[in-house]
Amino acid sequence: MSKALRLSEKQFRFGLWIVAIVFASFLIGLGGTVVQNLPQDLPKTGGLTSD
Questions:
Q1: Distance of CA 32 to CAs 2, 15, 19, 44, 50, Å?
Q2: Whole-angstrom Cα distance, residue 20 to residue 28?
Q3: Based on C-alpha coordinates, what's the Rg of the chain?
């Protein structure tokens, strides 16, 4: 393999950061969608315990 085709370690790390940022934004968007689709009606009892 030619040395000209190889990425330096600095460029490789930069690429990994880009991938990490894209993946994090995907997870944030997915979490927002899940929270948005939660049921809106909450019970009026005030807690999880049943009296």
A1: 45, 26, 20, 25, 30
A2: 12
A3: 23
* Tokens 């009892």 found at: 45
Are the CB atoms for 15 and 7 separated by under 8 Å?
yes
The model's pTM is 0.60
2 vs 27: which has the higher pLDDT: 27
Between CA 8 and CA 4 the distance in angstroms is 10
CA distance 38 to 34: 7
Phi and psi (nearest 5°) for 27?
-65, -40
